[in-house]
């Protein structure tokens, strides 16, 4: 199968959507499919052979963060050329409602289109206001996927229609088989994310840290991610700042080793999360997880059975839970065991097969509709029976 995948966000700035698309493309390539990914990227960025650059992205505030998007006449021309050259059997567009390549591809593409919705934003006035503009593009989509129930709910409430829920995928064995780094072991708490993006929750963890260190002065906080390190610790008393170690941006291999090494992984995110891929990666590596009680996080953690939850934005609750867990090796071992078993449902062997099944359904349906139209049936009745009728 010839598969075209559209990434809305800049390929050279790491993020959950980009990682999902990368891993999905490589999973299909291993199965023998032909895959091309269209993504924003700077011209001098080294790209995998399956990625085609649509040109440089620009930073735009989006869903509580700053996304690097690509839009405009030049981008539209590159989208059309990529579609023409690719002759794809199916086109998979991620975030088709974002003002980037996904929307451009949706307008320009013909044939079966699958769209994945990653965003969970129940109060998006922008999405409601833009519905009239988006409607023509959305009507061309043959099948919709949401990465979580909360992303599905955002889609239903703002744009109508529905979607099948297929979560983000992870190569579980890649994390499970990583070798721990002895320098990152020994009473360590781990955090990974953009340091200067408040919704990732590092300020909440910093508020909790003095109470954690008062109970366990030997504990270290390891922080992986880009941002202003001095600003991140300025709220801490000077004598505690040495207990925080910044690792900067780390490779995928070091991320797996990081998650295999820490005694407890903390995800203090405050909102704007539709899934929580870092939680899945942490569980894959065998790290016990403590996370804020966002709805999406609770779902990923099996409502607290596969990882513990604390009240969102409550530094005292975070500190209390972290100390309790670090002082209870038996509970940590239990969380490792439960998390390692629960996470198998997110492995690419399951997630990739589900997505491929969607591709096969829409391509078979499109072929059957075309055959019915050639036979003079108009295709409308068959289209309805296959679930391809427009809303």
What is the spatial order of strands in the main beta sheet? 3-2-1-6-7-8-9
Total number of distinct structural domains: 2
Outline: elongated
Indicate the low-confidence ranges by residue numbers: 379-391
Radius of gyration over C-alpha positions, nearest whole angstrom = 22 Å
CATH class of the largest domain: Alpha Beta
Tell me what the CATH architecture of the largest domain is.
3-Layer(aba) Sandwich
Count of helical segments? 16
Instruction: Tell me the span between the first and last alpha carbons.
Output: 28 Å
User: Please, what is the average pLDDT?
Assistant: 89
Question: Mind summarizing the main beta sheet?
Answer: 7 strands, parallel
Number of extended strands: 15
Estimate percent helicity.
40-55%
Strand content: 15-25%
CATH superfamily of the largest domain: Glycogen Phosphorylase B
Keywords: Glycosyltransferase, Transferase
Domain Glycosyltransferase subfamily 4-like N-terminal: 14-173
GO molecular function: glycosyltransferase activity
InterPro entries: Glyco_trans_4-like_N, Glycosyltransferase_grp1
Write a brief caption for the model.
By secondary structure, this protein is an alpha/beta fold. It is about 45% helix and about 15% strand. The longest helix has 27 residues, at about 350-375.
Tell me what the structure shows.
The two termini are 28 Å apart. The chain contains 16 helices and 15 strands. The strands form three sheets. A seven-stranded parallel β-sheet has the order 3-2-1-6-7-8-9, with helices on both faces. The chain has helices at 16-30, 73-86, 101-108, 125-129, 131-138, 149-159, 172-176, 202-215, 229-233, 252-261, 277-284, 295-300, 315-326, 329-342, 348-374, 380-385; strands at 2-6, 34-39, 51-53, 58-62, 65-69, 90-94, 113-117, 143-146, 164-165, 188-192, 220-224, 244-248, 264-267, 289-292, 308-310. The longest helix is centred in the C-terminal third of the chain and has 27 residues, at 348-374. Helix 1 (16-30) links the parallel strand 1 and strand 2. Helix 2 (73-86) crosses helix 3 (101-108). The chain has two domains: 2-169 and 348-385, Glycogen Phosphorylase B (Rossmann fold); 173-344, 3-Layer(aba) Sandwich (Rossmann fold), CATH 3.40.50. It has 391 residues and is α/β, with parallel strands linked by helices.
């Amino acid at each position: 199968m010839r598969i075209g995948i559209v990434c809305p966000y800049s390929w050279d700035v790491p993020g959950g959507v980009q990682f999902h698309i990368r891993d999905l493309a490589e999973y299909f390539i291993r199965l023998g499919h032909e895959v091309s990914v269209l993504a924003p990227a700077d011209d001098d960025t080294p790209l995998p052979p399956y990625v085609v650059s649509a040109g440089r992205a620009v930073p735009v505030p989006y869903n509580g963060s700053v996304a690097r998007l690509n839009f405009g006449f030049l981008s539209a021309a590159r989208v059309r050329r990529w579609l023409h050259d690719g002759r794809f059997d199916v086109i998979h567009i991620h975030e088709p409602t974002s003002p980037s390549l996904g929307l451009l591809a949706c307008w320009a593409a013909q044939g079966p289109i699958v769209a994945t919705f990653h965003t969970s934003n129940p109060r998006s006035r922008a999405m409601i206001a833009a519905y009239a503009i988006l409607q023509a593009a959305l009507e061309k989509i043959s099948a919709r996927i949401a990465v979580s129930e909360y992303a599905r709910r955002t889609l239903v409430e703002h744009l109508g229609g529905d979607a099948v829920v297929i979560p983000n995928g992870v190569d579980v064995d890649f994390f499970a088989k990583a070798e721990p780094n002895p320098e990152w072991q020994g009473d360590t708490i781990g955090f990974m994310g953009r340091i200067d993006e408040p919704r990732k929750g590092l300020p909440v963890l910093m508020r909790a840290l003095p109470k954690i260190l008062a109970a366990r002065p030997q504990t270290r906080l390891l922080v992986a991610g880009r941002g202003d390190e001095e600003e991140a610790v300025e709220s801490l008393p000077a004598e505690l700042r040495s207990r925080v170690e910044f690792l900067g941006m780390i490779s995928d291999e070091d991320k797996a080793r990081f998650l295999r090494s820490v005694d407890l992984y903390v995800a203090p995110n405050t909102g704007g999360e539709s899934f929580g891929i870092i939680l899945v990666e942490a569980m894959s590596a065998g790290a016990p997880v403590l996370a804020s009680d966002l709805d999406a996080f609770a779902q990923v953690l099996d409502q607290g059975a596969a990882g513990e939850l604390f009240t969102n934005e409550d530094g005292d609750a975070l500190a209390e839970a972290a100390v309790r867990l670090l002082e209870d090796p038996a509970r940590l071992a239990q969380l490792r065991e439960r998390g390692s078993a629960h996470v198998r449902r997110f492995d690419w062997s399951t997630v990739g097969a589900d997505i491929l099944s969607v591709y096969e359904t829409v391509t078979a349906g499109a072929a059957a509709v075309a055959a019915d139209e050639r036979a003079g049936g108009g295709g409308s009745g068959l289209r309805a029976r296959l679930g391809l009728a427009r809303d």
